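Two proteins were folded this term; both appear here.
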Amino acid sequence: MNMQLEKMKQKEEFERRKRMAEEKHREWMQKKREEERRERERKLSREMAEKATRELEKMQLQEKAEVKYNEWLKKKRAEESEKKKKEKEKEKERQAELQEKKERAEKIFNEWLRSARNKPRPVLNGYAFPHGQSTGRPDGNSYPVPTYCNPIPWKPVHVPPPKEESVLTTKNSKKPVSCRSHKYSPAVICKPKNNLCVGPLHRK
């Protein structure tokens, strides 16, 4: 009986310890699963926070880029507007200068035209119009009045006739060389019909 009681006690103790071990194992597993769940939640929240931070930084960078782009675009448009304004001013100045030159030219031309109309006409008793009748070309037109007359009369230039060259002969040699003689015709001096020569040339 005592042995049976002892065995029963041992069995009950074993069963109790087994239940306690199983209970502790369940508690540990539950605790472990809870920790893993919390770790996953922390990791997910951390990733979400990092993602939100990146999105926020990206948005901030994009806003800064848009602000800078808008500033650059505004500056560029202002520069283009200033450039167009300067070009318009230059074109306006050029047109005004051209108009001024045109008016000045027209004024000078009108003054010249008015003075030309008021100038006296040339007298017909001058060159090629003796006694008012034209002695120019057969078609009735006349030569223009010369603008310059040389006061010194023309004198012919005296050219002496060239001397005849003697024929050169060579001495007898093994290979005789013949030299041709060159004869120059004297220059013909044309005497003027009218005696315009004065001085010593006329006396000669």
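Next, the second protein.
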Amino acid sequence: MKNFFFLGIAIIFEIIATSALKKSEEFTKLIPSIITILGYCGAFYFLSFAIRTIPIGIAYAIWSGVGIVLITIIGALFFKQIPDLPAIIGLALIIIGVIVINLFSKTTGH
């Protein structure tokens, strides 16, 4: 269960890094650029702990899937990047996939 905590921390770092990446304006803004680099380092650092017991494919699917959904919400709220209906349907399928993996897959290690 501790490794899912690490996976959650990795997701938070990835969301912070990706949000800062948008603000870095192609790494021309110093502070957002530093946050981006440190955020991705933190994301991979904590992901490395998570994959000690969570299979790498499952961990990556959860990490990227949850990250995609959350960064889309941040994009809509803070950058006015509103997804259209096909994007929303795709995001719903990603959410369903993460739920199916967590509830039904025996490979997640719960």
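The radius of gyration is 15 Å. Residues 1 and 110 are 7 Å apart (CA to CA). These notes refer to the second protein only.
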